[in-house]
Structures are given as C-alpha cells and as structure tokens.
Inverse folding.
C-alpha cells in the first residue's frame, strides 16, 4: 500500500445468509413441529459486490447511497466489525469509528460518571480524564446537566456527550455514519469545524450521509453505492446529483408553464409561481429567488432549496431551509408555502442559472427543476472571476 494511502479496498464482496423454515401446506406446518423434518430455505443477501476504491491520507471521503444500498455494511467492514467474503480491506493508521455513539454508556449513571467510565474504556487514566473533563462538557454544551442521569437526557444531548468523548481518542482515520443527524444545527456546525481541524493535521475522514449539502461542502471525493456496487465516484457535486436522481421516478411531472424536460420528482409537492429575477445592472440590486411550494398530499417534513450556477453549468453556491435553520413540517394536502431566498449581490458580469428543489430530509425528491431561473448581470466593474466579493483596499505610505 502506497505511503499516502489511508484505506485500500480491493474487490470486496459481502454476503449475508438467512435460514427460513418452509412449510408447504397447513398440515406440514403442524406435523413439522413434531417431526422436525420441514425443509429449511436459505436466503442469500448480496450486500456488497466486488467493490474497489482507495482513500488518500488527509481526504474527506464521502460514501452515499439509499437505505439498504450497502453503505453501512461497507463502513462496518472498514471498521473491522465485518469481514469480507471475498477481497481485502487494508487500513494504514489508527482508526476510530463513530458508527454507534454512546456504546458503553450507562443510562443509570450521571453524565459526569459516564465521562470517567468512558474515558477508562478509551484507555485514559482518571487523572487524564480530569484534565480534559471541562473541555468535554463545554464542547457538549451540557454544563447544567452533568449530574443528572443519562436516561433523562434527550437523544441529542446523549449524542453531544458521546461525540465530545469520542473525539478525545486520537485517530488518524475517523468513520462517521450519520451519527450527528440528531444533533441540532449549531452542534453539527461545531462538529464539522472540528473535522476541518483534523484535515489540517492530515487526518482522514470517511463520511456517510444522506445530506447532500454536507457532502458538497465538506467532501473532497465521493462514491455512490447502489445495490451493493459502486455506481459512480468522483467530485462531490457530480455524485450528489446522481444520488438525488435515485429518488426520481422515470416519468417526470410538470406544473404551470415550466419545461417538463427539466423537471423531475415524485409529485408529492409541486414548485409553482416562480418569480423572474430582473437583470442586474448595479450593485444596489438585491436578487431574490422567490417561489411557492404546494403539498399535493400530507407531508411530515419538507426541505426547500436552490443552487446557483454560471452559464457553463458550474455550481457557485446554494443552500436550503434546513441549512438556514428554517424548519417546515406537517404540511396538509393543498397547503402552500412561499419561500424567498435573498442573495447578496456578489455577481460578476455574465449569465446565471438557478435550480430549485423540494425534498424530504432523507433526500426523496418531491420536485426538482433544473434551470428554473436565468438572469444576466452587467456591471461597470469587471474582473476575471465568477463572483465579485466586496473588498476594501487601503494603501499607506511607509
């Protein structure tokens, strides 16, 4: 294995077998209890099929896929929990899995007692735990709860404490399997800030997530697992788009006068009344992405977002209601929400395109319109870059 390689997966396959007793008739179902001669059926599940990839040291490497695709099985194989039926997994460096945070915590003990107990499991002495105890509590934001029993913590509080302890274990490679999903947005931001610090010291992060915004923002490279195989690998934006398409039915739907060739989704909600963005001729203009989303059936939760691109279809930036801490839930059939995204005027000269999307928190696409909006920018100030950041320059005599 090359010296710059953290993990190498070579032609790995993993099968699970399940035995099921088959009773052909009602009579055999009863007589088989006595004679124990009914036939057992063996079912084989091919979780992973001939998977190969390599992760470099210092990479933030993403693994995405629908539920049941095999991505969690793959992560457990990287962690050494499962062994492959075929192929080989090679790991270079100390690996810490954040797959099931809180394993080894006792709900009958207080938060303080659990910190010391978990510290001992991680190999720290009582004196060492005492030195970093305050840091653990501060990171977890649980100062007022450390003397309460863990069973009285919310799931988010438990994750914060468990994660804050887990990062004390010095690791070269971290495996993260959506364990931060129950944490609030501020805590997730804190965790990702910590991951960026790890990258600076050349640590490797393997990240499994359904959140394509996080995948796009943090990952250097991504693979998409579909039906136990690597269907695509490469740049985060490219792979994230392919992942989103997995949730789209073959027949797209349309509404209003939007081009249906650019529109896909399962139709549980529809984007409508998209307001045109006027062309921008001065820096005082504020572009606003303004549209409505109508629920076509009762919807428990919905995430609404956009992505802005240049004329070459290269993504510049984007966001969604979840990232911006705006929660939209429990929409009734035919209920409509109007959403406005106010953008800073940082655009340079050129043409810009906007994709809009409505989906659920697991990535199931309700409505996705590519190139829903186009606007042009013409300004006096010209630079050779795609966006124009407001910059103040000072020049002094020395």
């Amino acid at each position: 294995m090359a010296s710059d390689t953290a993990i190498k997966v070579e032609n790995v396959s993993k099968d699970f077998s399940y035995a099921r007793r088959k009773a052909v008739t009602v009579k055999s179902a009863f007589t088989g209890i006595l004679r124990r001669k009914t036939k057992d059926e063996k079912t084989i599940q091919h979780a992973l099929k001939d998977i190969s990839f390599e992760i470099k040291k210092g990479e933030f490497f993403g693994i995405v896929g629908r539920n049941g695709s095999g991505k969690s099985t793959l992560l457990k194989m990287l962690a050494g929990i499962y062994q492959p039926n075929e192929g080989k997994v090679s790991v270079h460096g100390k690996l810490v899995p954040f797959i099931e945070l809180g394993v080894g915590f006792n709900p009958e003990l207080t938060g303080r007692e659990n910190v010391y107990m978990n510290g001992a499991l991680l190999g720290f002495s009582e004196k060492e735990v005492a030195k970093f105890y305050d840091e653990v509590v501060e990171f977890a934001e649980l100062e007022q709860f450390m003397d309460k029993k863990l069973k009285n913590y919310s799931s988010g509080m438990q994750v914060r404490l468990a994660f804050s302890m887990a990062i004390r274990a010095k690791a070269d490679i971290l495996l993260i399997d959506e364990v931060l999903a129950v944490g609030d947005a501020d805590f997730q931001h804190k965790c990702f800030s910590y991951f960026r610090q790890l990258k600076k010291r050349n640590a490797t992060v393997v990240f499994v997530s359904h959140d394509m915004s996080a995948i796009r923002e943090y990952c250097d490279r991504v693979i998409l697992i579909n039906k136990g195989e690597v269907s695509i690998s490469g740049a985060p934006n490219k792979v994230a788009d392919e992942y989103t398409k997995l949730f789209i039915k073959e027949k797209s739907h349309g509404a209003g006068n939007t081009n249906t060739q650019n529109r896909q989704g399962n139709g549980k909600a529809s984007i409508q009344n998209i307001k045109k963005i006027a062309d921008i001729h001065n820096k005082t203009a504020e572009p606003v992405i303004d549209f409505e989303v109508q629920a076509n059936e009762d919807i428990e939760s919905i995430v609404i977002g956009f992505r802005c691109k240049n004329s070459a279809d290269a993504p510049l930036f984007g966001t969604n209601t979840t990232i911006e801490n705006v929660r939209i839930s429990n929409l009734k059939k035919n209920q409509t929400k109007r959403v406005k995204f106010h953008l800073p005027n940082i655009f340079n000269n050129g043409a810009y395109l906007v994709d809009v999307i409505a989906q659920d928190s697991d990535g199931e696409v309700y409505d996705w319109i590519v190139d829903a909006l186009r606007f042009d920018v013409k300004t006096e100030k010209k630079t050779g870059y795609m966006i124009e950041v407001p910059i103040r320059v000072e020049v002094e005599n020395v």
In short: The radius of gyration is 26 Å.
